[in-house]
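Q: How would the structure tokens look for this protein?
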Amino acid sequence: MDSVPTPTFQLSLLGGFELNGPHGSVDLTSKKLAALLAFLACSAPQAHSREKLMTLLWGSHFEAQARQNLRQALTRLRRSLSEDALATAGESVSLQPGAIACDVARFEALLRDGSREALIGAIGLYTGALLADIEIPEEAWTEWVGAQRQRLEGLALDAMVKLGEQELEAGNHEGALN
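A: Here is the predicted structure in token form.
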């Protein structure tokens, strides 16, 4: 039985981008590099075509330039994370399972649990809009991040309502009001 390794990197995307590794904060030096990692983390373990990634972050560039930019970005991510953090197979790119622990994945897992403690944890994780500090002037990125921000905010609001209902059922009126 394969076991998933303990993540070496912690990625926070709710409220803003922050990447921490075994030696502290990791500076990716570019918004597009951060955006690429964020997209892969939010959709992990799903693989994406290079074409889709190029359109997402370099859609306004000529194809050859977009392909070169993606290739350079993947090389830089491997240098910043580790050689085996990314999985590439032909035209597909994904994060290796277990390479990065992401707050969005944790948030969604806590919501699926639905217990009082899990909802409190999920609400605590939601510190603001997804990637509030990253704007990329590409149509595909703007559409994706906008839809994800709206979806995650809706989930956070639903969690607050559900927690309030649980508190009321338990007779904790002050907790429900909070």
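The chain has seven helices and seven strands.

The CA atoms of residues 53 and 70 lie 7 Å apart.

Upvote if useful.
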